[in-house]
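Shipment paperwork, digital attachment
Item: protein structure file
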Amino acid sequence: MSLTVPPALLEAAEAGPVDEDAFVACVRNSLPYAWEVVTRVVAELESSAAAFADNVVPPPTEAERGQLLRALASDAIRSGLERHFGVKLAFQNCHRVAAFRLSAVDSDMYRRFVSTRGQLLNQSPELRDC
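Attachment content:
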Protein backbone atom coordinates (compact mmCIF):
# COMPACT_ATOMS: atom_id res chain seq x y z
CA MET A 1 0.00 0.00 0.00
CA SER A 2 1.36 3.39 -0.96
CA LEU A 3 -0.56 5.61 1.46
CA THR A 4 -2.11 5.35 4.89
CA VAL A 5 -5.39 7.11 4.22
CA PRO A 6 -7.28 8.57 7.18
CA PRO A 7 -10.96 7.52 7.27
CA ALA A 8 -12.18 11.11 6.73
CA LEU A 9 -10.05 11.47 3.60
CA LEU A 10 -11.27 8.14 2.25
CA GLU A 11 -14.87 9.24 2.87
CA ALA A 12 -14.18 12.48 1.04
CA ALA A 13 -12.71 10.58 -1.93
CA GLU A 14 -15.74 8.29 -2.03
CA ALA A 15 -18.04 11.33 -2.07
CA GLY A 16 -16.24 13.31 -4.79
CA PRO A 17 -13.21 15.54 -5.37
CA VAL A 18 -10.51 15.58 -2.70
CA ASP A 19 -8.94 18.67 -1.18
CA GLU A 20 -5.40 19.02 -2.56
CA ASP A 21 -3.94 20.04 0.81
CA ALA A 22 -5.50 16.99 2.49
CA PHE A 23 -4.01 14.73 -0.17
CA VAL A 24 -0.55 16.31 0.21
CA ALA A 25 -0.78 15.92 4.00
CA CYS A 26 -1.64 12.24 3.51
CA VAL A 27 1.46 11.82 1.31
CA ARG A 28 3.64 13.67 3.85
CA ASN A 29 2.40 11.51 6.73
CA SER A 30 2.46 8.22 4.83
CA LEU A 31 5.82 8.62 3.09
CA PRO A 32 7.98 10.71 5.44
CA TYR A 33 11.33 9.75 3.91
CA ALA A 34 10.16 10.55 0.38
CA TRP A 35 8.68 13.81 1.65
CA GLU A 36 11.99 14.72 3.31
CA VAL A 37 14.01 14.01 0.15
CA VAL A 38 11.70 16.02 -2.10
CA THR A 39 11.49 18.87 0.43
CA ARG A 40 15.29 19.01 0.72
CA VAL A 41 15.84 18.96 -3.04
CA VAL A 42 13.25 21.70 -3.56
CA ALA A 43 14.86 23.80 -0.78
CA GLU A 44 18.26 23.39 -2.46
CA LEU A 45 16.74 24.49 -5.76
CA GLU A 46 15.05 27.52 -4.20
CA SER A 47 18.27 28.62 -2.49
CA SER A 48 20.23 28.67 -5.74
CA ALA A 49 20.04 30.11 -9.21
CA ALA A 50 20.45 26.65 -10.76
CA ALA A 51 17.87 25.18 -13.12
CA PHE A 52 17.66 22.04 -10.99
CA ALA A 53 18.84 20.34 -7.80
CA ASP A 54 19.06 16.63 -7.16
CA ASN A 55 19.55 13.99 -4.52
CA VAL A 56 22.38 11.51 -5.15
CA VAL A 57 22.43 9.80 -1.74
CA PRO A 58 20.87 6.32 -1.73
CA PRO A 59 18.17 5.66 0.87
CA PRO A 60 19.53 4.16 4.11
CA THR A 61 17.14 1.17 4.15
CA GLU A 62 14.80 -0.75 1.89
CA ALA A 63 11.82 0.83 3.68
CA GLU A 64 12.98 4.32 2.70
CA ARG A 65 13.78 3.15 -0.82
CA GLY A 66 10.24 1.80 -1.07
CA GLN A 67 8.78 5.12 0.03
CA LEU A 68 10.71 6.99 -2.63
CA LEU A 69 9.71 4.51 -5.31
CA ARG A 70 6.04 4.63 -4.32
CA ALA A 71 6.00 8.43 -4.24
CA LEU A 72 7.61 8.90 -7.62
CA ALA A 73 6.10 5.91 -9.43
CA SER A 74 2.55 7.06 -8.73
CA ASP A 75 1.33 9.66 -11.20
CA ALA A 76 -1.12 11.07 -8.63
CA ILE A 77 1.45 11.34 -5.85
CA ARG A 78 4.19 12.72 -8.05
CA SER A 79 1.93 15.30 -9.67
CA GLY A 80 0.52 16.27 -6.27
CA LEU A 81 4.05 16.90 -5.02
CA GLU A 82 4.88 18.85 -8.17
CA ARG A 83 1.82 21.08 -7.76
CA HIS A 84 2.49 21.57 -4.05
CA PHE A 85 6.13 22.58 -4.53
CA GLY A 86 5.75 24.27 -7.94
CA VAL A 87 8.45 22.16 -9.60
CA LYS A 88 8.83 19.34 -12.10
CA LEU A 89 10.25 16.18 -10.53
CA ALA A 90 12.44 13.75 -12.43
CA PHE A 91 13.63 10.37 -11.17
CA GLN A 92 16.47 7.99 -12.00
CA ASN A 93 17.53 4.78 -10.27
CA CYS A 94 16.26 4.17 -6.77
CA HIS A 95 17.23 7.52 -5.33
CA ARG A 96 18.20 10.19 -7.82
CA VAL A 97 15.36 12.67 -7.51
CA ALA A 98 15.69 16.01 -9.23
CA ALA A 99 13.54 19.09 -8.88
CA PHE A 100 13.51 21.34 -11.93
CA ARG A 101 12.22 24.86 -12.13
CA LEU A 102 9.13 24.87 -14.33
CA SER A 103 10.92 27.29 -16.65
CA ALA A 104 13.65 24.65 -17.19
CA VAL A 105 11.36 21.83 -18.30
CA ASP A 106 11.86 22.74 -21.95
CA SER A 107 15.64 23.03 -21.55
CA ASP A 108 18.43 20.86 -22.89
CA MET A 109 19.46 20.15 -19.28
CA TYR A 110 16.04 18.68 -18.45
CA ARG A 111 15.88 16.68 -21.67
CA ARG A 112 19.35 15.25 -20.97
CA PHE A 113 18.34 14.25 -17.43
CA VAL A 114 15.20 12.40 -18.54
CA SER A 115 16.68 10.92 -21.72
CA THR A 116 17.50 7.26 -22.26
CA ARG A 117 21.17 8.28 -22.56
CA GLY A 118 20.97 10.10 -19.21
CA GLN A 119 19.44 7.03 -17.62
CA LEU A 120 22.16 4.75 -18.99
CA LEU A 121 24.96 7.09 -17.95
CA ASN A 122 23.57 7.19 -14.40
CA GLN A 123 23.95 3.43 -13.93
CA SER A 124 26.60 1.71 -11.88
CA PRO A 125 27.10 -1.83 -10.56
CA GLU A 126 26.44 -0.62 -7.00
CA LEU A 127 22.99 0.58 -8.01
CA ARG A 128 21.96 -2.38 -10.13
CA ASP A 129 19.65 -3.86 -7.49
CA CYS A 130 18.44 -0.67 -5.93
